[in-house]
């Protein structure tokens, strides 16, 4: 059950990676984040594999094992489970941090685009005013030239 949810997470990471590569827009930050996420996923896979092996050993415990050996195995499983929980939390936090950084960068980018768009509109209005003034001045100059030539 936990293994299938982990496989689903890995598939999502692969799909995100493929979609980013398909778009051809991989920034260094994205590449680094994906590498870190994949390394964390690899660590989780290794821990899952080790945990599975320990669980199989636990199932194979014969009634001849002493209670001390069984207690040691249970302690190992508890430690592995705690480590896995910590790594999972770290991975989730890393993903959330990365997502918030991307959202922040996007909002800054949109703000700059809006600012540039507004400046372009203001410049267009100002250019229009200046062109009208130019036309008026050219008309006055032509009138003065006509009056002067008479």
Describe the protein.
The chain has helices at 2-23, 28-59, 67-149. With 150 residues, the protein is mostly helical. It has one domain. Helix 1 runs antiparallel to helix 2. The longest helix has 83 residues, at 67-149. The chain is rod-shaped and about 125 Å long. The termini are far apart. Keywords: Coiled coil.
Essential attributes:
150 residues, mainly alpha, 91% helix, rod-shaped, coiled coil, 3 helices
Short description:
This protein is mainly α and 150 residues long. It has helices spanning 2-23, 28-59, 67-149.
Q: What structural category do the secondary elements indicate?
A: mainly alpha
Average predicted local confidence, pLDDT: 83
What string, H for helix and E for strand, traces the elements in order? HHH
| Estimated helix fraction | over 70%
Radius of gyration over alpha carbons? 34 Å
What sort of overall outline do the alpha carbons produce when their principal axes are compared?
rod-shaped
Instruction: Provide the number of structural domains.
Output: 1
The biggest beta sheet is recorded as: none
Alpha-carbon distance between the two ends = 101 Å
Beta-strand share of residues: under 5%
Low-confidence stretches: none
Helix segment count? 3
- Count of extended strands: 0
List the helices and strands and how they pair.
Elements: H1 2-23, H2 28-59, H3 67-149
Helix pairs in contact: 1-2, 2-3
């Amino acid at each position: 059950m936990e293994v299938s949810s982990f496989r689903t997470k890995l598939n999502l990471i692969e799909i995100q990676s493929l979609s980013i590569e398909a778009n051809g827009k991989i920034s260094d930050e994205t590449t680094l984040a994906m590498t870190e996420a994949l390394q964390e996923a690899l660590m989780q896979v290794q821990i899952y594999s080790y945990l599975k092996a320990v669980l199989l050993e636990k199932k194979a415990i014969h009634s001849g094992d002493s209670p001390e050996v069984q207690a040691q195995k249970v302690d190992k499983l508890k430690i592995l489970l705690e480590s896995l929980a910590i790594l999972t939390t770290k991975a989730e936090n890393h993903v959330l941090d990365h997502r918030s950084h991307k959202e922040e960068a996007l909002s800054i980018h949109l703000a700059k685009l809006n600012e540039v768009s507004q400046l372009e509109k203001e410049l267009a209005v100002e250019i229009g005013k200046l062109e009208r003034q130019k036309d008026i001045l050219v008309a006055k100059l032509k009138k003065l030239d006509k009056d002067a030539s008479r």
